[in-house]
Amino acid sequence: MSMLIPKSQILSTAAILLLFSIFISSTEAAVPQFDWVQQEFLKSHNDLRSSVGVPHLQWDANLAAFSQSWANQRKQQCDYRHHSTSPYGENIFWELYRQNTATSIVQKWFGEKQFFNHATNQCNCQPERAGCECGHYLNVIWRTTTKVGCSGFVYCDDQKGAIVVCSYDPIGNVKGVNPLNPVNNMRGVAPPVLPPRQVNNGGRGRKRNVAVKPVALPANARLTSPVLPPKPVNTGNVRRGRGRKHNVAVKSPAPLKRPSSPQKSQRGRGRRNNRV
């Protein structure tokens, strides 16, 4: 004997299921608010940063939204080794069962400190691999990073666990640089290699793409035109009217004397230019 279910009850049950599915999807896709989970992420970061003497981080909603978006994209595979191409620092945590809190996750990242040699600013894990790496630790404690934003716990498809993403800005984690004082330590980093100079041998031999360092002049410096040394005068085979030589020291000419006898003057061709 079959039992008939009232139509109103069927509609009511369908409405409840629809609302539940909407709630679940919106919970995963929504931008995480600064609730107690996010507050715990921020506090855990700052507590550990204080232990190594670096400034606290500020929570950033845009970073949290990006972290949530990337976690939602990765929930099909849930591979914590697959990072985004964002301009931010990034930590990803995955667990098969949700057994960790926000605090324990950040502490696990900070636990990579045991593999980092602060004397050489190098990771002792070569190459870095799962179970022996330093990147998560460096993102947590990098001094010049000022903002952080983390996703909520995103459950993977097919019950593959859950992942959490945290993003950091400005990005740090520069190889060979002291994470606790990266500004002063940048002096030990090799300077960028300038492109080779391109010399144009044609025409006037103009050089291009040459890095020119600015010259600092004293405050009381006076700029004057350069004094060039006198050039020797070529006394042989001077072509009159066309033999002008540049950069020759010139003496004041003697006053011209009128010839005693009437001679035809050689104007325009008899003058030797710039003779000493």
TrEMBL record:
Keywords: Pathogenesis-related protein, Plant defense, Signal. One of its GO terms (cellular component) is extracellular region. The keyword Lipoprotein does not apply. Residues 1-29 form the signal peptide. This is SCP domain-containing protein. Residues 188-276 are annotated as: Disordered. PROSITE patterns: CRISP_2. PANTHER family: CYSTEINE-RICH SECRETORY PROTEIN-RELATED (PTHR10334). InterPro entries: Allrgn_V5/Tpx1_CS, CAP_dom, CAP_sf, CRISP-related. Residues 239-248, 266-276 have a biased composition (Basic residues). Residues 36-176 form the SCP domain. It comes from the Eukaryota. It comes from Solanum verrucosum.
